[in-house]
Amino acid sequence: MQKKLVNSPSRCVEEAIEGVLFSDSNLQRVEGLNILIRKDIAEHKANFVSVISGGGSGHEPAHAGFIGEGMLSGAVLGNVFASPSVASILAAIRIVAGPKGVLIIVKNYTGDRLNFGMAAETAKQEGIDVKLVIVADDCALPLGKGITGGRGLAGTVYVHKVAGAVAASGASLDEVHTAATLATARIGTLGLALSTCSVPGTPASTRLSLPGLIEVGMGIHGEPGREQMQLPETNAADRTASILVAGILDQPQSSASEAQVDLTANAADRTASILVAGILDQPQSSASEAQVDLTARRLSYVTGQRVAVMLNNLGALPVIEMQIVTRGVMLELAARGLVPVRAHVGALMTSLEMAGLSLTLYMVESDDDLAYLDAPTAAPAWIKSSVLSAESSDLVGNRTISYSAADYEKTVSATVQGLRADRKILTAIAAVCHRLVAMEPELTQYDAICGDGDCGMVMKKGAAYTLQDLKTYSQDNTTIDLSSLFTRLATGLSASMGGTSGVLLELCFRAMALSFASAAAVRGVRDATLVDWTAALRAGVDAISYYGGASAGMRTMLDAFLPAVQALEQGNDLSTVAAAAQAGADSTKSMQSLAGRSNYVNQAHMEGTPDPGAVAVAAAFHPMSEC
Question: What is the DSSP string of 59-88?
Answer without folding.
Answer: STTTTGGGBSTTSBSEEEEEEETSPPPHHH
